[in-house]
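User: My collaborator sent over this chain with a note saying "see what the structure looks like." That's all I know about it. Can you take a look?
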Amino acid sequence: MGTTSVKSGTAYFDPELLRFLQQLKRNNRREWFEANKPRYESAVKSPMLHFIADFGARLRTVSKHFDADPRPVGGSLFRIYRDTRFSRDKSPYKTAAAAHFPHGSGGKDAHAPGFYLHLEPGNSMGGGGLWQPDAPALKKVRDRIVARSRDWKEVVTGGIAILGETLKRPPAGYDAGHPFIADLKRKDFYTMTEFSDREVSAPDFMDRYLDACRTAAPLVRFLTKALLLPW
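Assistant: Without extra context I'll predict from the sequence alone. Here is the result:
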């Protein structure tokens, strides 16, 4: 399958994308998915790959170190198939379409700093940051918050709402009285902009998503530098 660009002024995502995902949520069974797989390919997978391919040039205006990889397998697009091996929920399919644009030095690791797009009926969003980093990466971020508190203050006072899980107690080795102790307790560092279903299907959606990435960029830049990666 190719990755020919969608013409300017044409929406990447038809409402059928969200309609398919809504129906998949109600019919999350292999038999239903196999019978409707051509719809998935045409309404979800193909438009997502087109979007990813075209977004690469736009992403480089934010930073040249993040990858938009339009390969059908092993690229930016997340698989529709769930890993149910360690989950009580044995539903075989994800009910959202998602893509990750990670730092080039981080490979395809979903836990590397990067930008993220999530399309789901009534719950679409986009942004970036660092999700569930391992212990060494988390320590580097916390240490940089302490060492570069002025830089961190510029991030958190710039209108970014940081999301994710936090510890109940201050992490060991950090001053409980630090002015940014609430941030030092964080286990995730990411921010998201929400999109309505209508916005997802609009011709200017790529512009809206790029704006979300630009909003997240100060946070992603701080995290990238904390991990000693180029911005």
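A starting point for your reply to your collaborator: The longest helix spans residues 37-59.
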